[in-house]
Amino acid sequence: MFWDQESETLTRPTIEQLQLKRLQNTVERVAQRVPFYRDKFTKLGIVPADIKSLADVRLLPFTTGADLRTIYPEGMLAVDRDEPVRLHTSSGTTGKPKAIFFSRKDVENAAELVARSLVMTGITRKDVLQNMMSYGLFTGGLVMHYGAEKVGCLVIPSGPGTSERQLMLMQDLRSTAVHILPSYALYFASFLEHKGIDPRKDLSVRKAFVGAEPHTEETRRRIEQIFGCDVYNSYGLTEMNGPGTAFECEHKAGMHLWEDNFILEIINPATGEPLPEGQTGELVMTTLNREAMPILRYRTRDITSVIPGPCKCGRTHRRIARFTGRSDDMLIIRGVNIFPQQIERVLMSFQQVGRNYVIIVEGLDDLTVRVELAAAGFDGQVEHVAALQKQLVEKLKAETYVRPKVDLLPAGSLPVAEGKAKRVIDKRSL
Ligand SMILES: [Zn+2]
User: Fold this and answer.
1) Which residue, of 51, 106, 141, 391, has the fewest CB within 10 Å?
2) What is the distance in A from the centroid of ligand 1 to the CA of 316?
3) Strand-strand pairing, 366-373 and 405-409
4) How far is the CA of 318 from the centre of ligand 1 (A)?
5) Predicted structure pTM score
6) Tens digits of per-residue pLDDT, 116-130?
7) Peptide bond into 73 cis (omega under 30)
């Protein structure tokens, strides 16, 4: 099923022609109207006419999250101050947020991309979507809402309210789909269990859209199993509109990124150089269809790769893989880029290993992983510990290309963090 079959199945040459035309247009507009970019172009000695092919996108400057905070609130507007009709901000934890302005056309276009994304998973006007994301400055509420309305769904704007009220609405309105944080989905599942409700029998939810938080494939499968529904990954970066930036289709094999609206690049986060297709690096995006606030080469800090080859669904917009981390977390050890999430994935694949671990880098790029043994289910016999240690070293080496030292510790020996755990101690930078 397609929302806009023509746009979603454009041939590669047509997508690229369209991208080049829209890129030239965007660069021309920001050079004229946005002093922030005009100054950057002058410093780099480039003019809009230098953009002759798509590869020339690399001549353009990057835009970072820090830039967006510097120009806060409206230093990147490419339209008059009275032109935008909506404001969203990204959820910054410290300091000023990143403010993103939408013109009427931008609001309309964001809804269009959400409509494409939802229909791609099989959503129709018959569906009842309960949007359990926060409404307000965060895009997860409103942007998803208007996209689903566009499809013709009944949208229940429940927001992140209490579980009691979510359940009441879900039962009374027979919600068939939910938009939900993965961590809340797991919490809600235990709430239902406590209430003696079997989601498979007692609820009508058949699809769940999850995003806004990093989560693993295991979490997706768990949510699918508990609710008896299909779970689709959604990438909704506020700087790029929010929900509908990239979304999984019915095949759940990576997220289609709408390339008629964005140029996607994968770069080496340490050097800023482009990486060959299929390699893992930082996602960089350029808006092509933004009126109020175009953004060039935005450093998303999200680590992913382009999935090679066509998708079975017939859409030609390339897919990006599940994120493996944030570039801020990347460690460079003996010239190799390593993400703590890679190490975590290996550790969590061993049942005998507990959830608490710490990664230490010191000396001449020596990597040590200290991890607790599981509290139950492991006898702790010396020879079994030694065998496990050896297996862990081999598996970690295969995953990261660096041979680590592994310390196995009794359960409860590492400090338990309040809030977000500090997993990496890089003594080289001390
Ligand atoms: Zn597909």
Assistant:
1) 391
2) 8
3) parallel
4) 9
5) 0.85
6) 999 999 999 999 999
7) yes
